[in-house]
Amino acid sequence: MSAEDQALSEALRARMGDTSTQMQSVPIPESAAECGDTPGYERMLCLIDLLKADVSDDLLENLQHDYSLAEAENWSNLPAGAFPKRPGVLLGELNIKQRGLVKAIMLEATGHAPDEGFDEMLQTLNADDYINTVSTDYKAGYSSYNTKFAFLGTPGESGTWELYYGGHHMAFANTYTDGKLAGATPSFRGVEPFPYFEMNGRVNEPLTQERDAFATLLSSLSEDQQAKATLEGTYRDILAGPQADDAIPESYEGIPVSELDDEQQALLLTAIETYVDDISAPEAAAYMEKYTAELSDTYLGFSGTPQVSAENDYVRLHGPSLWIEFSLQSNKSTDKVGNHPHSVWRDRTDDYGGQTE
User: Fold this and answer.
1) Helices of type H across the chain
2) Hey, CA dihedral for 23, 29, 34, 36, is it positive or negative?
3) Is 103 exposed, middle or buried (0-12, 13-18, 19+ CB in 10 A)?
4) Taking each helix axis from N to C terminus, what angle separates 41-54 and 96-109, rounded to the nearest 10 degrees?
5) pLDDT of residue 91
6) Cβ–Cβ < 8 Å for 272, 322
7) Beta pairing, strands 197-199 & 322-330
8) Pairing mode, if any, of strands 148-152 and 160-167?
């Protein structure tokens, strides 16, 4: 570790905590009523202004950053203590009112279906709180307290900025340009334990809908179709994960979606929706329209079993714009026997909102 990274790590650990943020029960403050009740970009900007006005100068310094692609690329699937370069204020550093405003902001940017969007984020936070009850590695930062939230660039009606939310097994990156969503990827999801666990007063099962959608799709393939879709080699993790922005291959592998029947194509679109529905409904609809139009040029591939339940089972969707990976690997952070998923949605045309610097 370089001297700079060591200094970053020590500074972050001084800020980290090991308590739950309880984001699912945090109330949205009454002050949010100033922003009206019409969902959308203008309400989100108003809520952001309320949050920035409420935090101290020290917190604001960590919350508000200048935009740069290099900063936006600093996301990871690792817990806070293992990746100190991740920008932002820790959720646990905010008071209840401020966390409520973060919640309101994220509800404007995310989908609201069960196990998707904001609900999936809550369950991922609960997973870190669960790991905190069984892990002895405090330095890793297994706790919802240590999830980061930031604005990369100044939110407004003009210019480019990113709504950055990330922590262990989570990266949400909505980039806006001149008041419109320019890109919703990279979007990373993972969870351990899997497929379900109890924490913070609920049963949590994020990513089971993704796994089940892929298993249903692969199980619908004939033997010949499965043979065509089978990828060479073993995939122990996703390819296009953190710090792997150039990992998507140029060549296509697997079976062309054009060789699937109408019912199978519908199942594939359902699988895509489990990723795209993590963002707000109007913006998700625009992505689905694009991916549906590109379906004939999209490929499906997998390695391992079509049940998507064993270690090293792997699924991939690769299109002109679309890239999705789902990978199962052995548990790393809990004492539970089994596997846990890593998964990523990327858009080859507008990752990071199409920004190049």
Assistant:
1) 3-15, 41-54, 57-63, 69-72, 96-109, 117-134, 208-219, 223-229, 262-276, 281-293
2) positive
3) buried
4) 160
5) 98
6) yes
7) unpaired
8) antiparallel
The total of other beta-carbon atoms located within 10 Å of residue 335's CB is: 8
3-class state of residue 316 by DSSP? strand
Dig out the tokens for 112 from the structure. Answer: 């609201």
Low-confidence stretches of the chain (pLDDT beneath 50) = none
CA dist., res. 62 & res. 47, Å (int):
18
> Under the phi-then-psi rule, with left for phi > 0, alpha for psi from -120 to 50, and beta for the rest, what region is 91?
alpha
pLDDT tens sequence across 136-171: 776 789 999 999 999 999 999 999 999 999 999 999
| Ramachandran class of 153: left when φ > 0, alpha when ψ lies in -120 to 50, beta otherwise | left
Which amino acid, residue 25?
Answer: S
| Secondary structure tally for the chain: helices H, strands E | 10, 14
How far is Cα 180 from Cα 157, in angstroms, rounded to an integer?
Answer: 8
Query: How much is the pLDDT for 337?
Result: 86
pLDDT given at position 138: 65
CB 158 within 8 A of CB 172: no
Is residue 166 a contact partner of residue 83, using CB atoms and an 8 Å limit?
Answer: no
Report residue 35 as tokens: 């922003």
* Pairing assessment for the beta strands 170-177 and 299-303 based on DSSP bridges: unpaired
Predicted pLDDT at 135: 86
Give the position of tokens 């999936």: 120
| Range 109-114, long-range pairs (CB < 8 A, 24+ positions) | 109/44, 109/163, 109/172, 109/174, 109/279, 109/280, 110/172, 110/278, 110/279, 110/280, 111/277, 111/278, 111/279, 111/280, 111/281, 111/284, 112/281, 113/277
Other C-beta atoms within 10 Å of 24: how many? 18
Rounded CA-CA distance 44/200 in Å is: 27
